[in-house]
Amino acid sequence: MVGARPAHAEFMQIWEEGYVSTSTSFEVMHTKSIMLLDGASLRRPDGELDRERILRFLDAAIGGLEFFRLRLQRGVLGLTPPAWVPDDEFDLARHVRFTDGVRTLASARLWDLAGHADGVMPLRHPLWRLRFTALDDGRVAVGMTFHHASFDGMSGMKLFSAMSRPSPELPDARENPFADVRPARAIELPLLAARGWLRRHDGAASAWRSYWSWKPTRRIRRLGGRILRPLRDRRSRDPGVRAAKLPPRHTDFRTIDAATAARTAAALGGTLSDLLVAATIRAYGDPGVVNLRYPVSARPVAADRPRNQVTDMQLFGTASLPLEELVPALRAQVVDRDLLAPPDVPGRQIGYATLLPWVSSPRYFCGALIEGIIPFAAGLGEDEITAGAILYNGRLSIGVTMQAHADVATVTEQLGRIMTGESSEIAATGRPV
Amino acid sequence: MTTTTTVDELSEWLVGRIEFYGRVPAGSFTVDTELTELGLDSIYAMSLCADIEDTYGVPLDPSVFEHWTTLRELAEGVVGRMRTV
After folding, report:
1. At residue A1, does pLDDT exceed 50?
2. How far apart, in Å, are the Cα atoms of B53 and each of A373, A380, A433?
3. Which of A157, A168, A104, A92 is nearest to A130 (CA)?
4. Cis bond leading into A328, ω under 30°?
5. Parallel, antiparallel, or unpaired: how do β-strands A310-318 and A289-297 relate?
6. Is A355 within 8 Å of B43 when comparing Cβ atoms?
7. Which residues does chain A have within 8 Å of residue B54's beta carbon, measured at their own beta carbons?
């Protein structure tokens, strides 16, 4: 018998479905970062993590946030996009891991600190996970895994603001925001989608006209794609396909003074983002023309529950171009983004770069000062390099991911030096120039 | 965040943020300096919006800088929005 609580569902947007279309794409879009905390209040006198205190803070700080309680529900027969519904078996502790012992940030595999070894997140529950690790320098690393289907860079920054506090005090606990609703079942999604469609239009006639403004072939293709998803997924599980989509990777990071980097960018005629892309191209050092995917706002921010509101453009350049020419050239491409689009963008695509501005004042998580956040941008598995940066409290933390055979340490070091104006050279990785 | 924040208080806070960003020397600008002269590119415009929302609870989109072109106008606009909440 259906309960008295109304069914709740938030449908994915078209462009978000691809992130969960196959098991491989789902795994690729696990997005990781490491939050570094002042560990003084999070560790017991023996140096071990104070797990009870951490869980208490988490329960108060994020247990009442909608984002952390929503899971994915696919619609029956693929008639609708998947929807986010409340997890009626939500258990915060299920999403939190603690590392035994102490690790060193410099030598530990950053991927492990970020939670990579914890594996693929189950679709049955909300798509997030935190791993707390005590570091030998007294700090605590919080490996954060989220899924790109549930957020983009800008909504991610708002999520960080919602998770954290301006002071170290224990926040007031919040109620379950979904206490008065229940998760919509798969079979209910088509009716809920139809009702939502009608509500967004001024009457049935308007809704009907809007529905048929799409070509029927487009709708049939979408529906067919969902119905055939299990077959596509089977192909994606082929070992050869998976090996190509998920090759071994490793990471490094640098944290630099943001104002210094911003002045370097301005002197070169661009923004911090332009400089990040230029520094990535230059540090990577490919002798030919290359391009990087780069996110730009694509749509007006939706008033209700915006998650993914960006699209990727491609910025191209060559490492042989001096920064004084490369940075302005990239700026011009961003300004005139409508003039050139794939497949007309020149160069070989090597990866992705993004820079996210967060707040410039100190924030606290679990009662501890956030010293920095190292982002690992959600690239495609076959990307040769991804560079993500977060601007926080006057510092710019840059996380670089490359395939396991590449010299990520040298490239990251040089990328940071280019950003601060210390150097403009190509990274000395031994690559022929 | 308080709905009693005055334009002068918010203006002073904004000056502090611009100085912290380090894009222009402290003391080289006033609340009536055009924002375009304060080194606020798209990244720092978004960062300032995040700072305002984080501190004063007023969500802003960087498109507001098309209409509020000085720190004083920005302070007046934000205070106005605070009072309508």
Report:
1. no
2. 20, 32, 46
3. A92
4. no
5. antiparallel
6. yes
7. 161, 166, 359, 361, 363
Please tell me the predicted confidence (pLDDT) of residue A2. Answer: 52
Contact of A189 with A73, CB cutoff 8 Å? yes
Q: Which two three-digit tokens encode residue B79?
A: 């205070």
Inter-axis angle of helices A272-284 and A323-335, nearest 10: 130
CB of B19 within 8 Å of a chain A CB? The answer is no
Which amino acid, residue A149?
A
For residue A423, the number of C-alpha atoms closer than 13 Å in the C-beta half-sphere is 13
Tell me the nearest-neighbour CA distance from B57 into chain A, angstroms. Answer: 11
Residue A58 near residue A130, CB atoms below 8 Å:
yes
Tens digit of pLDDT for each residue in A3-57? 589 999 999 887 778 888 888 889 999 999 999 999 999 999 998 999 999 999 9
Give the whole-angstrom CA distance, residue A224 versus residue B6.
Answer: 57
Percent of chain A with pLDDT over 70: 94
The distance of A238 to chain B (nearest Cα, Å) reads: 41
Mean pLDDT of A405-417: 94
Quick: pLDDT tens for A88-115: 999 999 999 999 999 999 766 898 999 9
Token pair for A42: 């999070």
Q: What is the DSSP letter of B70?
A: B
Q: Rounded to whole angstroms, how far apart are CA atoms A428 and A271?
A: 26
Q: Could you give the CA distance from residue B26 to residue B32 in angstroms, rounded to a whole number?
A: 15
Separation between Cα atoms, residue A355 and residue A273, nearest integer Å:
6
Please list, residue by residue across A153-166, b when 16 or more beta carbons sit within 10 angstroms of its beta carbon and e when fewer do: bbbbbbbbbebbbe
Write down the pTM of the prediction.
Answer: 0.92
- The answer to whether B20 contacts A394, with C-beta atoms less than 8 Å apart, is yes
Beta carbons within 10 angstroms of residue A45's beta carbon:
6
Query: Of the segments A17-21, A75-79, A94-98, B22-26, which one has the largest average pLDDT value?
Result: A94-98
Structure confidence at residue A411 as a pLDDT band (50, 70, 90): very high
Indicate the residue of B47, B53, B61 with minimum beta-carbon distance to A360. B47
